[in-house]
């Protein structure tokens, strides 16, 4: 296991300096700070028991860093987390990374300089220097819906494989063979897990493995629309579209209507991971995996409260349900 | 003008105690704290120049307290505010009041105990003791989209009267006379302003003044659906519905479909204050006032940055545009 001595040696600073940086002290130079954080990240340094016990004075404030506050999944999750936190005597300060790892780092720095008791985090990708410093500081942390491989923190999130299984079964039942899949970034664990489950399940459910039908956006409407255009332009026919999150489905539906016109677009059945308010009003209505954002927010807070009380927290995958809005009968 | 002496006298505490409470010191008893804050609120005490100059050390963090993070208007506003703040070297911590004045107060306390440089605030209603304390502490503050009568802080928000005028003109052009109006709470300035503009403009635009067609919810989908049910149950016929914000329109559309069935509901034209992602997909598509959430968020941050730099900030009403999605030709 990497020790703080290894970090100091790699960074070329004294043990005291490394310790000050990693405990979040402001009495360090910008230069030594960046060297120590980079070294900690490279070596995968995680604070050990004694460092973790360096608790700050209690503030009754939790930090919640979400990926994109305009994504209804996260705004619902944030709302539920906050209600649950209030039951436990905590308030929650929210920060929005906007699907941007640099912005996430800026907020981790803000939370480090502000005084919070623990952090609920929906990460962008990999371990950044700032995240390494946060972990090293011993701040209690749980992951919400997304995690980072190799970081030892409990994850409260959707059971993505089970959710995708719902979609595959529905596609087969509706008689779809040629399905366009618009995924999310592979660097985000939910994007990677949903894509992997879909690819692995296609043959079993009689769905075409034509690679021209696969593309991915940025989990935002704009990038998803671009991905949908690329699939349409490749010319392989499809009768259904599967959007890997709610905003992806929004972008895909926009692109379909824009490129094919409302009438032809209405002949394509759309299914989504994440259920949005308006899916019942679309024509045809959009069927969807109901992703339990509220449960995940509440469970995450309970897990963090357990950590704060010195109890164990093991994380949990939350099962999804499926809302079938397709017209009755065979297509 | 009310002075700190008046507050101390009303609260029955010493001048020193009143001063400590109002400057946010923790060295005060819970009892004197609540008495001083209540007295400050009753007397409408606002800190004067010298008190305002009691600046804390700079943290480069702004607080943003929104009314409901699940309302897309506020999540878009929050996102824009945060991007603008980053241009100016600030990060933004978000808090969600969930349309609940008590919860808003809890967050004002959190921001008071945390260290922020200034506050962007979308308030729930009146001056609470905690808001009085926040104002008294001299924390630079701007209002976003909603304001409180009598509080001297710049407001950056929608021009509600101008937005409602768009709707009235559209209703007349579409030949509607019997229009159901689902408003928001009168205790929220946007709710009151939109309702007042609508009531005042009805006759000029040839719209029925039948009181049975007026109701109000809570600016959330659930309360709006209840209000829509009440209007339907009163039995006065209508050919159009005007929802006073985006979530109100969502609730109204749900209630229409639930009570009248999809086919009859589709014969009612719906128009909304706030334009939502899915309105283009509704049948028939929903026309809407485009409320410039992003501009408001950006302008609010610039105003707060001006205050922080010691410059004046005067507030601004932002004009709306109107998106007409009605089918071409006369109804």
TrEMBL record, chains A, B:
Record GO terms (molecular function): DNA binding
Record-linked CDD domains: HTH_LacI
InterPro entries per the UniProt record, alphabetical: HTH_LacI, Lambda_DNA-bd_dom_sf, Peripla_BP/Lac1_sug-bd_dom, Peripla_BP_I
Limits of the HTH lacI-type domain: 2-56
Keywords per UniProt: DNA-binding, Repressor, Transcription, Transcription regulation
Pfam family, one: Peripla_BP_1
Protein name, per record: LacI family DNA-binding transcriptional regulator
Origin species: Streptomyces hebeiensis
């Amino acid at each position: 296991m990497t020790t703080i001595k290894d970090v100091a040696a790699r960074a070329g600073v004294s043990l005291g300096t490394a310790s000050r940086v990693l405990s979040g002290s402001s009495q360090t130079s910008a230069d030594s700070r960046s060297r120590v954080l980079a070294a900690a990240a490279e070596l995968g340094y995680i604070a050990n028991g004694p460092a973790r016990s360096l608790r700050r004075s209690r503030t009754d404030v939790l930090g919640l860093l979400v990926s994109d506050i305009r994504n209804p999944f996260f705004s619902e999750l944030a709302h539920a987390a906050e209600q649950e936190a209030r039951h436990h005597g905590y308030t929650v300060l929210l920060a929005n990374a906007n699907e941007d790892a640099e912005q996430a780092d800026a907020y981790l720095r803000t939370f480090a300089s502000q005084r919070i008791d623990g952090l609920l985090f929906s990460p962008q990708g990999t371990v950044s220097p700032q995240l390494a410093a946060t972990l090293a500081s011993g701040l209690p942390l749980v992951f919400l819906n997304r995690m980072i491989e190799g970081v030892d923190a409990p994850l409260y999130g959707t059971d993505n494989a089970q959710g995708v299984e719902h979609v595959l079964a529905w596609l087969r039942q509706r008689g779809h063979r040629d399905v366009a899949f618009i995924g999310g970034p592979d660097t985000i664990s939910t994007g990677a897990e949903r894509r992997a489950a879909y690819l692995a399940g296609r043959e079993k459910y009689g769905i075409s493995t034509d690679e021209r039908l696969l593309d991915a956006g940025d989990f935002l409407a704009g990038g998803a629309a671009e991905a949908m255009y690329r699939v349409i332009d490749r010319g392989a026919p499809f009768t259904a579209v599967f959007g890997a999150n709610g905003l992806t489905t929004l972008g895909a539906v926009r692109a379909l209507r824009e490129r094919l016109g409302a009438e032809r677009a209405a002949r394509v059945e759309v299914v989504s991971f994440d259920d949005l308010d308006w899916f019942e009003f679309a024509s045809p209505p959009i069927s969807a995996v109901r992703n339990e954002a509220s449960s995940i927010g509440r469970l995450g807070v309970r897990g963090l409260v357990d950590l704060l009380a010195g109890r164990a927290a093991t994380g949990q995958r939350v099962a999804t349900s499926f809302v079938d809005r397709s017209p009755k009968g065979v297509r």
